[in-house]
Amino acid sequence: MKLRLAAFGPLLGLALTWLLFATLAGSAFTSWGNFQLMLVQTAVVGVAAVGATWIIIGGGIDLSVGSAIALSGMVGAAVQRASGSPAVTIAATIAAGVGTGWLIGALVVGQLLRVALGLAAAALVGALASALSAAPWIAAVAALLAATAVWRATRRLERLLPLSPFIITLGLWGALRGLAKGLGHNQPIYFDHAPLLAGLMQSSWLVPPGVLVMVLVAGLAALLLRRTVFGRHATAMGHNRETARLSGVDVLAVERTIYVLAGACTGVAALLQLSFLSMGDPTTAQGHELKAIAAAVIGGASLSGGAGSIAGTLLGAFLMTVVDNGCTKLGFDNWVQEVVTGAIIVAAVAIDRARQVRR
Q: Is residue 305 included in any domain, yes or no?
């Protein structure tokens, strides 16, 4: 009975919250148009929360999600303005997210020296290419190749300094946001209208394609988590890292890969945000890291690692959207929504703690 309650708890909470606002706000809340709006609003946080769920299940944490979304979106906007190709923009945006995930993973497992050498090589080659008046994309490619070459050349270096995910992502929370602002010189990056990009989140379809993208990402993540050896290794590492290592799991490789997968989710979330805004905004997605973590915990993920549900995470993300939207329909000020969101986060942590005590 307890297991069933834990499984259906997020769904029950969502249903009760929905009924509360439907009763108080009426048709303004229950209309199909408003439901579509809530789905669109959930898509960005939902995709980011899928990546956060993987990290939490593996025993980690990521406080830089919002900043990474902003940076990846700025990269995508810059590429779209320069190339005019939505396909290239999509690839660049997701690649930027994967890059941030790879950076976090490398630092967490202790490859600080290799990362520093690679970044130094990239900065040097990029500056040299710019000084020679090379095109920006040529400078970027040259910098990436230089960093890759240095990384491969230093692969024999020992992992000397494993770092806490909390500290790493807290530092990148500010650093990535700063890079996003620097990329646009403290201004948004605008680009010509691109129907393919805009159509992800602004569509006449019954359900916008961006929502289907969220469902697809969640489905693939759930399948990978529950039906593959890698997923079982990630869960085992979250339960007990040392036991997993003694059982033959390469915990460093698994941990690094988890952050790369989460980075891919961040890139997809940034693409959806870029589509929704139709511009790159360095100030966007502030607070999304807390919403993603809260959605995962509401959905059943344990902050101590080793437990979580992708489906539950989506329900948690939609629950938070319902609360925000319902407060808006009732005419509450933004500060009320922020207080309620904070209360939800505290409640989610309390629920997680209660689950651990019962175990």
A: yes
Q: How many domains does the chain have?
A: 1
Provide the pLDDT confidence category of residue 261 given band limits of 50, 70 and 90.
very high
Rounded CA separation 42/288 (Å)? 11
For residues 324-338, average pLDDT: 84
Produce one character per residue of 147-159: b if its CB has 16 or more CB atoms within 10 Å, e if not: beebbeeeeeeee
Task: Evaluate whether residue 283 is within a structural domain.
Answer: yes
Residue 101 lies in a domain: no
| Domain with 273 in it | 15-63+193-358
Encoded tokens for 274:
């870029």
CB atoms within 10 A of CB 325: 21
The answer to the question of residue 331 being in a domain is yes
- Give the pLDDT confidence of 192-244 residue by residue, as tens digits: 877 777 777 776 677 888 899 999 999 999 999 888 999 899 998 888 888 88
pLDDT digits (tens, 9 = 90+) for 173-198: 999 999 999 888 889 998 887 777 77
The 3 state secondary structure assigned to the chain is: CHHHHHHHHHHHHHHHHHHHHHHHHCHHHHCHHHHHHHHHHHHHHHHHHHHHHHHHHCCCCCCCHHHHHHHHHHHHHHHHHHHCCHHHHHHHHHHHHHHHHHHHHHHHCCCHHHHHHHHHHHHHHHHHHHHCCCCHHHHHHHHHHHHHHHHHHCCCCCCCCCCCHHHHHHHHHHHHHHHHHHHCCCCCEECCCCHHHHCCCCCCCCCCHHHHHHHHHHHHHHHHHHHCHHHHHHHHHHHCHHHHHHCCCCHHHHHHHHHHHHHHHHHHHHHHHHHHHCEECCCCCCCHHHHHHHHHHHCCCCCCCCCCCHHHHHHHHHHHHHHHHHHHHCCCCHHHHHHHHHHHHHHHHHHHHHHHHHC
